[in-house]
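Hi R.,

Here are the chain sequences for the assembly we discussed:
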Amino acid sequence: MILKYFFMINFDQALEISLNQAFTFGIESVSFEEAAGRVLAESVRSDRDVPPFNKSAMDGFACRRQDLANPMHLIEVIQAGTPPLKSVTEGMCSQIMTGSVIPDGADLVVKVEDCSREHSEISGITEIRFIGEKTNVNICYQGEDLKAGEEILAAGTLLDTRHVPILATVGSVFINVFRMPSVGVLSTGNELVEPGETPGISQIRNTNAYQTIAQLAKMGIDCDYYGIAADDEDITRSMISEALQDNDILILSGGVSMGEFDFVPAVLDSLGLTIAYNQVAVQPGKPTLFGYDNHKFVFGLPGNPVSSYFMTELLVKPFIYRCMGHFWNPPVFRLRAGERIFRNKSNRLAWIPVRIDRSGMVYQIEYHGSAHIFSLRDADGIIQVPIGQTEIVIGESVDVRPI
Ligand code: AMP
Ligand code: MG
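And here is the predicted structure of the full complex:
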């Protein structure tokens, strides 16, 4: 292995370098029904006031507050979807349903359960008497949620299920979103067999490709899988170059370290990609590579599955979101350590899998290192321990990032 290919940098620098290279891949129009998981390429404005009219929040009687002390004549029944025909004047009221237009003259709605009703067959008059104690206005006023023309969703918003009804409300049935980048996934390693196969004595099952595909599926990316490349320079080159031809982003696993048969950096270099870094001062996840040319991006993730899982969360996902036009800022929860968390070496930034108990305290889970994929079974999240720090004391604040 030629050492000129190794560049160790800090994790924050690695993230910044990758994010600075990211670009979007064009714009397409989608139906609002398919908007969840996409990123808006334009702002969305309301086409009308919301509510569009003064609206009853209750089933009841629309009337004037000053008339409540006396019986009121019922003049009309207003259904939702039908405008009122009459104004409410002194001593009058209109029966009204939730969601109906408040008639002119009325300044509140009393609830149907707070009223008695008497009908005279002789006069044909129905009298409503308020018998409740409390009166709320029970009117949602026109424009109190939104004014016509107001921006409700900014360009760059990552749309979620919560945004679908908002788009429906303002009639944005087609929206411009950034195109999803195409992503290829390829594993390297002579020792790998696919999960459905029975491994030989020196073989293991390929976990990384499937975990990456699952992690990216959660963000709406439908990866193309290219299988396992044997640890052979020519095979690695031809499989990488095929996968690169078809995709905007290629995610490789394994073959990035210092081993005799780790061909990925040399192959990418020979294919004309710039390798921005291929070692990151992070634990786990040190043998992580990022390469690019004018059109394509490659992440070379570590072979060890925990490293690969973490680097997908911490480096690849922010990058892909940026390529989708979104500045991803994943939530972290500031909680307290329920036990002392200690490590021997502190020369790299550490990410440690943790669980959160029912009282919100944070505990380490059994973790034997970057190959120990079972450690993630009970993990609620991961915490950072900075370079130079060896311990977190009981009760200390920690930021838990869900995984
Ligand atoms: P490498 O980075 O290729 O040297 O691999 C480091 C370690 O991760 C080795 O123990 C590999 O067997 C293991 N490994 C590599 N690729 C995978 C994979 N796709 N699934 C599970 N383990 C892997
Ligand atoms: Mg390998």
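DSSP finds six helices and 29 strands in the chain. The CA atoms of residues 351 and 384 lie 5 Å apart.

Let me know if anything looks off.

Best,
T.
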